[in-house]
Specification:
The chain is built from 4 helices and no strands. The protein has helices at 3-12, 16-31, 36-55, 64-84. It is flat and about 45 Å long.
């Protein structure tokens, strides 16, 4: 694994290549073609997952892994939006 890939895993929980393959597979399985709207829906779904992770707190305290998982998931959602939605702006 390269230094860049290690940085991506720390930032996103996976590499950018892994994210791209996953997002495009999900989009294709959904409607058979690439759609910016579908990419936005994936990003919103990730953000909803973050809300759920934060909703499951332990009396107002969160363990490190919950915070780290939410941070990485939000970074994935931002990457999806910046990668797939930038053409629409």
């Amino acid at each position: 694994m390269t230094d860049q890939e290690r940085n991506e895993v720390r930032m996103f929980g996976c590499t950018k290549t892994d994210m791209k393959e996953t997002v495009e597979r999900e989009i294709f399985e959904f409607n058979g073609k690439r759609s910016n709207r579908d990419a936005a829906m994936i990003a919103m779904s990730i953000m909803s997952d973050c809300q759920e992770m934060l909703n499951r707190d332990n009396g107002g305290t969160y363990d490190f892994m919950t915070v780290e998982d939410v941070r990485q998931a939000l970074n994935r959602a931002k990457w999806i939006l910046s990668t797939y939605i930038k053409e629409a702006v």
